[in-house]
Amino acid sequence: LVSCRHLEVLLFSSDCLRPPVPQGPACILRDQFVSLGNLLRSVTCLMPARERFRLLTSVLGKLQSVHSLILNQSGSTAAYSCFGALLKQLVGGWSYHDKRSVFQMIWQEASLETRCQQIFTNTAGTFPFHEVDIRLLIRNVFLQHPSATTNSGGHERHVSVNFLCWLTLLLKSWPLVHQARLLVTLFGPLHPSTGTVDWQKLCSTTSGGSCTKQDLAELAYVMSALYRSQGSALGDGEDHGTPKQLAWVPDEVVSIVDEATALPHGWSLDNMGRLLQLLCRPLTVNLLQCYATNGRLSELAHLVLHMALVCANDDEGSGQRQGGETSCCKTELLYFVEVLRDVLSIFTIAVRKQFLQQFFNTWHEHILDIYHVSEDSIQMNMAVRRMTNMCQVLSQYIFI
Question: How far is Cα 187 from Cα 140, in angstroms, rounded to an integer?
């Protein structure tokens, strides 16, 4: 075994920390940093945590010039991704407390607190390119782009403990309102032209301006991952077991979702319905039940209706793609019914009747709005058919 000082001399005198000038694809550069991370992990695995941390600090300091070179020639995404690859390989097996020390070091070196504070103290979208830079840095260095599917109920692959560790350290550095803002900044939809966070789309009420599944899939995935951290639903990561520091209280996550959907000045009901469809089922149920227990039955009725409309619309599109009858494809609506049953389960009989009356009144108002606003007979017929499918499913299943 060699000491940390001797190891530093060996590394810094070799070509390990002097990658060639980046001229090829970014993936080749990233592979070089992966190899460096594996090398450092192998030679430091028996060292005390303090020595490993000291070596990492020295290595990152020596690589600053390399980072500037990659940044200038390949862009910020490639530069951040290279360091993220190194970090992932090196600290993957470290304890939560050791990762926290690494996080705090990078947090200070990258001036993340100052950069985040700048966007938090201003209205969302005021500094769009600062938001994008923070998004690229955090996602590429720490979070490595979570892969989310678009199934209803959050049926995506389970998140690793490593991902949850970095995400928790990032979020819990801030009060709840800033946690919500940071989540949407990191995982919210991007504008197709500018590549900036599309805050306006979240609030848009215009026809065709609502978010798609792909727009909200990652945000729903991460929110669901935080909610699931309270139990044993975490997948196999680089660590074994889930430190208690990574477990989120359900009410915390519900509050974050509530705050996030108020940004920048309240999401549209269509987008709220889409998010409710994509969140994991326990979180969706908990969120809707909170509206009920707080006496917000009118708001609950609108949310439930728009979630049903989103589900019915997806079923209709699925039926058309399969070339079959739309009425035969009701997968999403049946999922909605299951959620609604869970929500109604906490109601007394009197409150349940009150809510259902409110729900059908909201439904009636929506049908009248379609009739008065729509000038396209085809669009109106589609909307009526969608509402008919909803009525059939609700009447068949909800009262069983």
Answer: 12
List the Cα angle 167/225/276 in 5-degree steps.
120
pLDDT value, residue 141: 93
Q: pLDDT at position 247, please?
A: 82
Averaged pLDDT in 10-residue chunks for the chain of 400 residues: 49 51 65 87 84 83 82 87 90 87 91 94 94 95 66 59 90 95 96 94 82 94 90 45 75 96 92 96 95 90 92 75 53 89 90 87 80 62 67 61
Query: What's the token pair of residue 83?
Result: 């360091």
CB atoms within 10 A of CB 348: 8
At 273 the pLDDT is: 95
Per-residue confidence (pLDDT) for residue 21, from 0 to 100: 47
- Give me the phi and psi of 197, to 5 degrees please: -65, 125
Query: What pLDDT does 33 receive?
Result: 87
Model pLDDT, residue 398: 58
Encode burial over 1-36: b for 16+ CB neighbours within 10 A, e otherwise.
eeebeebbeebeeeebbebeebeeebeebbebbeeb
